[in-house]
Amino acid sequence: MRLLKAHGLVLRQVRRRVPEGLTLPQFDVLIQLHRREEGMTPGELTRALLVTAGNVTGIVGRLVAMDLAERRPVPEDRRAVRVRLTPRGRRLMRRAIPRHRRDLDALLSGVVPADLARLRDLLGTLGRALESRP
């Protein structure tokens, strides 16, 4: 229950700080795309974000309409597409990511860095244990 409560409190604060005009899921997709300049397939995004393919399709469609992302065909597989940031999307993320990091640092500033490192390690252990379950 403590984990769920902490998650809810952090999520509430993070949602308030995403760039104007974006939802948290849209910002999350943009962050993933920013990490991979070559782009990602919708399936890769689905796995990275732990959401359904339908959700990714809708989010990507809205980001394309906002000229923040683009779909490009994969030359070796005519059925597949890669989603990439547009130049506008890349500019937005170059500004937004440092601000996002500062916001998270401020949000977590009441926790000793050693405790944050331990928490990160413990959550990683928990995540791996849960992923390995059938």
Description:
The protein has 134 residues and is mainly α. The protein has a single domain (2-98), classed as Winged helix-like DNA-binding domain superfamily/Winged helix DNA-binding domain (Arc Repressor Mutant, subunit A, Orthogonal Bundle). Helix content is 66%, strand content 11%. It is built from 6 helices and 2 strands; from the N terminus they run ααααββαα. It has a two-stranded antiparallel ribbon with strand order 1-2. α2 packs across α4 (53-65) and α3 packs across α4. It is globular, with a radius of gyration of 17 Å. The model has no long low-confidence stretch (mean pLDDT 93).
Secondary structure: number of strands: 2
Mean pLDDT rating = 93
What summary fits the major beta sheet? 2 strands, antiparallel
Number of domains: 1
| Outline | globular
CATH superfamily: Winged helix-like DNA-binding domain superfamily/Winged helix DNA-binding domain
Output the strand order for the largest sheet. Answer: 1-2
Q: Give me the number of helical elements.
A: 6
Percent in helix? 55-70%
Class of secondary structure makeup: mainly alpha
Distance between the termini: 23 Å
Radius of gyration: 17 Å
Q: Strand share of the residues?
A: 5-15%
Oligomer: single chain
Low-confidence stretches: none
Q: What's the architecture in CATH terms?
A: Orthogonal Bundle
